[in-house]
Specification:
The chain has about 260 residues and is mainly α. It has eleven helices and two strands, in the order ααααααααααββα.
């Protein structure tokens, strides 16, 4: 497993798409830091406020990272490396596990890059411009912000497992990319179009999509002009259980199906 993970890390270092997406997050963090800061003069009520504001844009991550997961999952089939790896003695279990663990590392890295760089640039700009940093209580706000960051990692991990399942089943990058867009944008569209429908069944579907949960814990979910946030243990439990169920089912399906499915390259 260690050798396989090292090989995957080497592949990422050489991968143009990975470096391009990393650069995209760097540029996005930089632009957002100066754009959001210029609007407020870099003033903040407490040191956590800038990061809290950025977490409201968490949904942007879900239109980029799942697409790369699709590319990363199918590259072994496009270039035939999966047959070489399995013929070299690696088990299918090791192959899938190594791929998924690498994806999890990518998620954490891009989260740190996007949110961490933004925060550092914002604070640096505030110090340079001499803007004041308020001393309002920030303990509860920090806990909420860390909760949002943690939930983003969980949801991205669930998306990654689902996209990996589809990609390993299709085994062709172009077709898998189309399926990925249908999943990501389909979930987004269902969440929006069914949100205020008169049908209780459709509203129930909308209320349990991944996009709806992401908007809720990010603090940007509005329905009938009412701002909906997580409140109480039940709503938090629902937000956690939905991605966990998807994650567990997807991983189980991956191990079962990939262990039996023929490999075409």
């Amino acid at each position: 497993m260690r050798n396989f993970l090292q090989a995957e890390a080497y592949y990422l270092r050489q991968d143009t798409l990975f470096r391009g997406i990393s650069l995209l997050f760097v540029l996005a963090s930089t632009v957002l830091a100066f754009w959001m800061g210029s609007k407020s003069g870099y003033k903040m009520n407490n040191p956590v406020e800038p990061l809290t504001s950025l977490t409201q844009l968490s949904l942007l991550l879900y239109f980029i990272i799942p697409v790369y997961v699709c590319f990363f999952t199918t590259e072994g089939f496009e270039f035939g490396s999966v047959k070489v790896i399995l013929a070299g003695g690696q088990s299918r279990f090791t192959y899938v596990t190594g791929k998924y663990l690498t994806v999890l590392k990518l998620i954490v890295w891009w989260m740190i890059l996007f949110f961490g760089l933004f925060y550092l640039l914002y604070l640096a700009a505030a110090l340079v411009t001499g803007s004041g940093i308020g001393d309002h209580p920030w303990g509860p706000e920090l806990l909420v912000t860390l909760r949002v960051l943690g939930l983003n990692i969980l949801y991205l991990a669930a998306y990654a497992a689902l996209i990996m399942l589809i990609s390993l089943w299709i085994q062709r990058t172009a077709s898998a990319i189309v399926a990925t867009f249908l999943i990501v944008f389909g979930d987004f569209m269902i969440s929006g179009y069914f949100r205020e429908t008169s049908s209780a069944w459709l509203r129930l579907i909308s209320d349990h999509t991944l996009t709806t949960q992401i908007m809720k814990f990010s603090g940007i979910y509005v329905i009938h002009s009412q701002h909906i946030v997580l409140s109480g243990a039940r709503s938090f439990l629902v937000v956690v259980l939905i991605p966990l169920i998807i994650l567990i089912i997807s991983l189980a399906a991956i191990y079962i199906s990939f262990g039996k499915k023929d490999i075409h390259t």
